[in-house]
Specification:
This is ABC transporter permease. This protein has one domain. The chain has helices spanning 2-13, 23-54, 71-80, 85-101, 108-126, 134-155, 162-194, 201-206. Helix content is 72%, strand content 0%. The protein is mostly helical and 210 residues long. The chain contains eight helices and no strands.
Length: 210
């Protein structure tokens, strides 16, 4: 009897995954969104001088700077690991950046936040919110980058020539992969090592696997 109960313990003790948001999820997602929004304010100011250096080299290359606005959704998705986390954190960051610093792009920044968050969200959803390894983070960053490119090309560069569209899209995706994907994953791993994410699956799983 003792041997039988021991064999059954792992199966019976496994808890089903819950996608319901807890209070702590809302609080931490909000912290991520607000903190990211403040970084967005700084990035808004840095974009024009930096893009002025890239654009003359190759029109469309300025999209390499896009990752500075994409990491909020990916980081939120990696840490919270619940449906809607990427959209919530990215959109909140856009709202905060608009309220605190204002932008030259007006209310369209909110549309950008929603679309970019959705780009990352769709990747996490594709993996059924169950896989948060580094390659999923990179794909989420790429999804956010692609969303940024489509949104910008429609809103700000309608009727652009094919070469510009290609360069802008590839640059946005590369930036999304490196900045929003890889750096967010490294940030999540770093936070997990400090114990700050001990109440999240991100903190527990980061201690055991990559």
């Amino acid at each position: 009897m003792h041997a039988t109960s021991t064999l059954l313990t792992p199966a019976t003790s496994r808890q089903p995954r819950s996608y319901r948001w807890r209070v702590v999820d809302i609080v931490i997602a909000s912290v991520i969104g607000v903190a990211s929004g403040l970084i967005f304010v700084v990035w808004n100011q840095a974009y024009n001088p930096l893009s002025g250096l890239l654009t003359p080299l190759l029109p469309g290359l300025q999209a390499l700077l896009g990752g500075g606005w994409l990491f909020a959704g990916v980081l939120g998705g990696l840490i919270i690991r619940k449906p809607g986390a990427a959209i919530y954190t990215e959109l909140l960051a856009a709202v905060v950046s608009t309220l605190v610093g204002g932008t030259a792009w007006g209310a369209t920044i909110l549309v950008s936040g929603l679309v970019q968050g959705l780009g990352a969200e769709l990747v996490f959803a594709l993996f059924i919110y169950a896989n948060y390894r580094v390659y999923v983070a990179l794909l989420a960053g790429a999804g956010a980058g692609l969303a940024l490119a489509v949104n910008d090309l429609l809103l700000w560069y309608p009727g652009s020539a094919a070469p510009f569209i290609a360069v802008y899209t590839v640059s946005a995706i590369v930036s999304g992969i490196v900045v929003a994907g890889l750096l967010s994953w490294l940030a999540m791993r770093g936070l997990a090592r400090t114990g700050a994410l001990s109440r999240f699956a991100a903190g527990r799983s980061s201690r055991t696997r990559v």
